[in-house]
Design brief:
This protein is of the alpha/beta class. It is built from 20 helices and nine strands. The protein is elongated, with a radius of gyration of 26 Å.
Amino acid sequence: MQSALTRFPWFAPLLALYPLLYIAVANPGQTEAGSVAIVAAVAVASALALLGILRVTLSTWNRAALGVTWLSLLFYAYGPVNGWWLENVLAGIEQEAANPGWMAGNPQLLQSALWLVLLLPGLATLRKLRDPAVNRVTGAANLISFLLMGFLAMQWGVHQFGGKPAESEPAPGAAPAASVQVPANTPDIYYIILDGYARADTLAKYYDYDNGPFLDGLRARGFQVSQASHSNYYWTFLSLASSLNFEYMQPMLGVAQDPESTDRNATYQLLRDNRAAAFLRARGYRFAQLQSTWGGTGTNPFADDFIPCHSGLFESEYLRAIADASWLRALNARASMDVANCHLHNLETLADLARRPGPKFVFAHFVPPHHPYLFDREGHVLRRANLSDQFEFQKKLWEQREPYRDQLIYMNDRITAVVDRLLAESGRPPIIILQSDHGPNLRTGLPLPEQRRIRMSNFAAFHLPGAPTGLMPDDETPVNQFRRIFNHYFSAGLPLLPDRYFASTYLRPYEFVEVDTQGVQLASPAQ
C-alpha cells in the first residue's frame, strides 16, 4: 500500500509554482496581487496538463511528475545560465552589439536548442527507472515541496504582518482640494530626473569633459545651476522617495525598519504616493507621471495620469522578473519593451505635455546617462535592450567612461530641445527641475571617501520664474528643494531641514552611514 506521501505526486505542480511565488514574496512592493494570481493559476494548470500528457508516455503518475519537474528545472535554470553565458562566454557582446557575429547575435536560439537536447534524454531516462525507486523519490519530493511552500508562507507572513514602517504624515500646508481656488496663473511644475548624471566637476576630472556649454545654455534660458549640489542618498529609490516627500527616509520609514532589510515595499510606496503630489493635488494640480524603464518609476497607480511608453506581454514588473529568470528569456527581446524606443518616446511626450491644460505636476525619470549605453553622441542606437536585460552588464559599465560621456552629450541635446518647447509652448513660464538622483558609481582605483563623493555629487538646475536668484542655494540638496519652492510659490511655511548625506551598500541599502560632502564618514552613527 502506498504511503500518503507517495499516493499522488503533489510535488509536480508545487515545484512548478514555488519559484513564481518566491519571486513575488522576495520582492514585496514590486509585484501586483492580480499578476501573481494569474501567473500562479497558469503555472498550476500547465503543470497538471503536462502531468496528464507525460502520464501517457511514461506509464505512471509518479514518473510523469518527475518529467514535469525535469522540465521545470530546465525552465527556471535557463535564465541564470543565460546570464552567465552572456557575461562570461560572450563578454564582448556589449562592444560588438552594433555588428555582432552569429553566436553573439543569437544567444537565446543557441541555448534553447541545447535545452531541447537535454530535455529529451532526461525524459527517456525516466522510463527506465524502477517503481520502488520512483516511489521513494516521489515521497521525498512531496515532503520537500510541502516544506518549501511552508517556509514561503512564513516568509510572506513576516512581510505582511511583521514590523510596519511608520505612516508618513500629510505634507505640512496641505489643504483639501475643494477649499482651494486655483489661480489662473498657476505654473506647471516639471520634475525631470536624469539618472546618474554627474556634476560638472566630476565630468571634468574623471571624464575629461567640459559641460560648460550645456550649463551656460541652461543659464541663458533662465535656469539656476547648482555648482556644489549633493544627493542625500546613495541609491535611486531612496533618493527619489526622499526628494518627492521632502523628508529624510529614516523618520518616514520609522524605527521598525530593519537595517539588514532589502525590502523596497515601503520605500516604493512613498515614492509613488508622494507628499509633493499630494500637496499640489490639494491645490488643484493633476499629477502626471511618464513610465520609466526602472522598476520604482515604471508604474504608478497613484498618478492621476500615468503615461506609458509601451504596452506588451512583459509590461508588468513581476512578469519581467519571471522572464529574466526563466526560459521565457528567449522570447523577451521580442515581447518586451525596447528601452531605447521608450526613452525616445518619453522625450517627445514630455515636450508635448506643455500644450496639455494645467495646472499639472509632471514627473519624468530618464535612466540615461546611466547605463545601458544605448545612444552615441549623435543619437544613433548602439544596441537594443529590453527591460529585463538592460542592466545585464551593470557590474562593469560604470567604468566605461567614453560611452557614458557620449550618452550624456546626446541627452544634453535632447533635454535642451525639451526645455525649449516647454518654455515656448506653456501658457505661462513653468517651474522646471532638472536633477540627477545621484552621480556615477566609479570605484576602480579610488579610495572609499572619493567613491562616495563622486556618487553623491549630483547635477541640479532650476527654472523658477519670478523667484529671486538666491532662492535655491548653490549647495542645495534634494530634501529641501520642494520645501523652498512650495514656500515661495504657495506660502507653505515649511521649515528647512539640515543638509545630511547618507551612504549605504546595494545589499544593505537601509544600513545608513552618514558622511560629509567629501564622502568621509562622520563619527556619530546615522539616525
